[in-house]
Amino acid sequence: MEKEELEKVPKFKARPLNKKIFESKGDLGMFCNTKRQVTVPQEFHFATDERILPPANVADELLFGKERGAEKERKLFTELLHKQIEEEKSRIRKANPYPYTTDYPVIPPKPEPKKCTKPEPFQLESLVKHEQETWRHMEERRRMEEEEAKMRNFKAQPVLTEDPIPVPEKVRIPLTEVQDFKLRVDNRSLDRAEFDKKIKQKEMMHKRYIEETESARMIEEDKALKQLRRTLVPHARPVPKFDHPFLPQKSSKQVTKPRSPKLQIVKRKERKATTACPYAAVSTAASQMR
After folding, report:
1. Where is the stretch described as Disordered (predicted)?
2. What pLDDT does residue 211 have?
3. 8-state DSSP, 20
């Protein structure tokens, strides 16, 4: 079974290497940092050749131009060389020379030693706030104790013989008078009848206006149709042309070959024969036994 399983395992097959990986800049495969191309020097295109008039002697002018160009190149080379030498000199640092004197250097006096720092307690705001809060709590407690002491000293009030605030006598309110209800049903029914009457009048006016406009439009259409019929001129239909009659051509397709239909009669007969065989065998055996 293990051998069969090992045989069924698909075999490993490496894919071909894409050569574009070595030319890409990290898009495909490993990163490849390509070097920039070297700048190719090109000649300057001055407009002096177009502005200068054609010389009388071309050979002399060419010689003079070459000498002038060589002199300019020489000057440019010397200037660049001087600049390079100056830059190299500026990079080299030089120490300032020590002044030549016979006097001894002035040594400043040694400063006096400072006194030691004396420690002092910190004046924190939290301590001040704590003292104020404790003092406030003590004052509050003392005040409450004084109030409780005053409350313990009970002193009865004198008995009042006369009531200083007399109670007013009760006034009897008269009974409510019963009146008939004034309903808005009657008034609303009258208003609704008037509203419905106005709506019907408006509908009748709108219907009459639509009928009048429709009749006027029909009359105008009849007038326009009659006027158009008066202005129209009858024209006879042209005779059809028979210059290019239709000529049927013989078809190039092959004749249709008849095919027999695939009916299911044969299969049904075979099925009936197979189903009827067992009964026939039984009947023959029974007849022989009899």
Report:
1. 92-114, 237-270
2. 94
3. G
